[in-house]
Each structure stands twice: as C-alpha cells, then as structure tokens.
Amino acid sequence: MEKKEIKRSSFTGSLGFVLATAGSAVGLGNLWRFPYLAAKNGGGVFLFIYVIMALTFGFALMTTEIAIGRKTKLSPIKAYSNINKKFGFLGIIASIVPLIIFPYYCIIGGWVMKYMTEFTIGNGMDTVAEGYFSGFITSNFSPIFWCAVFMGISALIVFIGVDKGIEKFSKVLMPALFVLILGIAIFTLTIKGPNGTALEGLKIYFIPDFSGMTVGKFFGILIDAASQIFYSMSIAMGIMITYGSYTPKETNLVKSVNQIEICDTGVAIIAGMIMIPTVFAFQGSEGIEASGPSLLFVSLPKVFEAMGFVGNFVGVAFFVLVAFAAITSSVSLFEAIISVAIDKFSWSRKKSCVIVLIISAVIAFLTCLGYNVFYFELTLPNGVKGQILDILDYLANNIIMPVVALLTCILIGWIAKPKSIIDEIKINGEKFRREKLYTVMIKFIAPVFLILIFAAPFFV
Ligand code: PHE
Predict the structure, then answer these.
(1) How far is the CA of 190 from the centre of ligand 1 (A)?
(2) 1 band by pLDDT with thresholds 50, 70 and 90
(3) Does 232 sit in the ligand 1 pocket, CB within 6 Å?
(4) What range defines the domain where residue 434 resides?
(5) 192 — phi, psi (to 5°)?
(6) In sequence order, which residues have a C-beta less than 8 Å from that of residue 132 and are 6 or more positions away?
(7) What is the pTM of this model?
(8) Residues 25-37: tens digit of each pLDDT
(9) What's the structural domain count of the chain?
(10) Which of 119, 200, 331, 448 keeps 20 to 30 A from 408, CA to CA?
C-alpha cells in the first residue's frame, strides 16, 4: 500500500533552530545538577574541566547528532538505518529514550508548576514548612494534577507545530529566561545572610579547591563532567537528530553548535552563581551539599523566606525561570517521540500528539503513584534508593543513553567514517577549524569516556 507522504516540518532559520535547541539543552540539569556537581567537585576545578570537555567531547557528540539529522532529514528511528542498514536497531533504542524520560520529566515539571503557582499567588512561604515537599509529592491527587498541566502545555506547543509552536515559543521563552537568570544573579550576588555574604560564597564556587585531590578523585570529576555534558546537551535521546532534521541546509552547523553550547554552559555557570552563594550565605556549606530536588524545592524556598519580603518576588522570578527551562526541554522530548510516530506510522502530527499524550499520561500517572500506593524502594547500582521515577531515570541515563552514544561513535567513527559528517558540516563551503579534533574525538576519545561513564558505578 502506498503510504501518505507527509510534508516534513522545519525551522524557519538559524535563530529558531539555535533557540529551540538551546531550549532543549537548558533545563533542570543546568539549574540543579550542574551547581551541585560543581560544589561537590572542588568548584573551579570542575568548571575548568567541564568547559574543556564541552568544547571537545560535547561538541563532537552534539555536532554528530545534529548533522545526522540534517543529512538524513529523518527521525531517529529511520536516520540510523539510513546511514547504515545494520544500525537500524540503534534507531529503535534511541527512540525509546524520550518515551522513558518524557513522563517523569513532566512529573518534575509539575512540581515546578506547583511551586511557581504557590509563589505567584503569594503562598510561597507555605512551602518552607517542615515536610511540605515530601507531603506534596506523596499525596494522591496534587502531583498528578500538576503533571497533567505541565504535560498538557508541552503537548500543546508540539501540537501547534515545529515553526509555529516550538520555534515561536522558544523565541519568547529563551530570551525571557536569559533576562531572568541574569537579573536574579545580579540581585543575589548583593545579598548578605547569617553565614556571610554571597560574594564569599562565590569564592567557594570559582576558586579551585585542590585539597585532598587524588588521582581517583580527579578521575571521578572527569566522569561527573562527562555525564553531565551528555545529559545537559540532550545527547543520545534522539532529540538532536530530530531538531537537526528540521534545520535548513543553509544553517552553519558549527556556528550554531557553538551558540547552543554558549547558552547551555553559560546558563549552567550562572545558575551556580545563584545557587551556591545564596545557599552558602543563608545555610552555610551544608545547604550546598543538598542535591537534586531538595536543593530546588527545600533549600531554596528557605533562602527566599530568609530574604524577607523581597524573597517573595525572587521566588516567583526563580520558579518562572525554572518552568521556562523545563518546558522547552520537555517540548523537545515530546517532539522527538512525535517525529518517530509521524515517520514510522505515517500518522498526522495531531493524531500522533493525541496517542503519545495518552500513553505518556498513563506512564506518568503510574509513576506519580510510585510515591504512594505503589511505594517501594529499590537500591540502584549507583547506590541511590529509588522509586519508579528514579528507576526510569537510571535506566535512561545510566544504561541506554551511554550505549546509544557509544554505538553512534562506532557508527560514525569507524563504519560510516567521520568524513560523512564532516561533508555535511561543510556543505555550504563552511570552514571547520576543529575538523582534526572532531575526528580524534569521535573515533577514540569520546568512546573511551563513554565506556568509562558506563563502567564507573562498578568500580568508583
Ligand atoms: N538537557 C536537559 C537539561 O539540562 C535535560 C533533558 C533531558 C532535556 C531530556 C530534554 C530531555 O536539563
């Protein structure tokens, strides 16, 4: 049977592509995971290693995926087999990742919506009560409701389309996000708390702390930086291939990747300049050690409370910032799934959105119930005691994604050869100054890092 030909969506130009892709990259990982890792890994030491790795390892992986997308103009499920027939299975694995991540990303997005709303309507200070956050996430209805709100917004943007939905929203949300983060950073650096000034806290963040540095510790920092880059740049989940496939051929890929990296790394570094100094000023070094959700939903509201009246406004601005960052990321996850549905089953965009939304909603609601009716704890290989949400996160981030990235390096580095990507990059006669570096990265260094990320939990 002849399949219906559906016109492929596209971004209208480089700016739309860069902002949408930066929107995907800039997310919760930048705002909560990066500052925490920097504090844990000796401040400036981590920052330095991270930036170098972003410009080499991250650059190579991101450029590869975007170029695969633009070269094939296909969604991940077909793009890999288009490059090499034997790698069709890789397309299937890569396409499963966003379907695993999207539902639980929406749960966390829902938590952000809840806090943003509470702060906006003036109830922000209620959130500092002891046990508020755990009470909220373990309740029956509220987390599901807020998850549905967040998921609905993400799906609606994708439903509207790539150029009219994703691109238009990114063009508004991303500049707003940059203004908000800069404004909050400038304000927070002027504050003083019971434990000292924010500027003293800034020193902890920027000045490298080599105390107790051993080879093993240095190795641990390298692995932390590599895995953060991977997550932060939305690599190995089909997203960059999808967005790359919507990119006009005239776009200069190297220039765009540079701009995306500047946004992603810039926001991460500034997020650290907000989190670490403020938490230090109000709670001292222990506050900084809180990671993940508790940094965002427990430590920071306490800091806003301690700021007094003005803390209400900083709280609103802060949670609006986090919500913008999270929405543009979840939109990219949903779009990656939708592009697969359109390509694979020849469904229309609208039909794909409705079906995928229903499936994701069921997974998300079951995952929400993992905090109450389905509660159980499982100790994961990385030592984290987790519920359903943590298990999905572990499965995607620690197992499937490193495998997808590693096989992508093998496919491009050794089978299709780096030239296939380099030719795509230089298609309009662009200069590619990091060409040699790219080749070495994709053939040798990136695979080694990926194997280390994969193996680290077993020997660190
Ligand atoms: N890159 C995002 C971040 O830094 C994470 C993300 C994961 C985004 C999955 C989209 C999809 O938070």
Answers:
(1) 30
(2) very low
(3) yes
(4) 21-459
(5) -135, 135
(6) 126
(7) 0.93
(8) 999 999 988 998 8
(9) 1
(10) 331
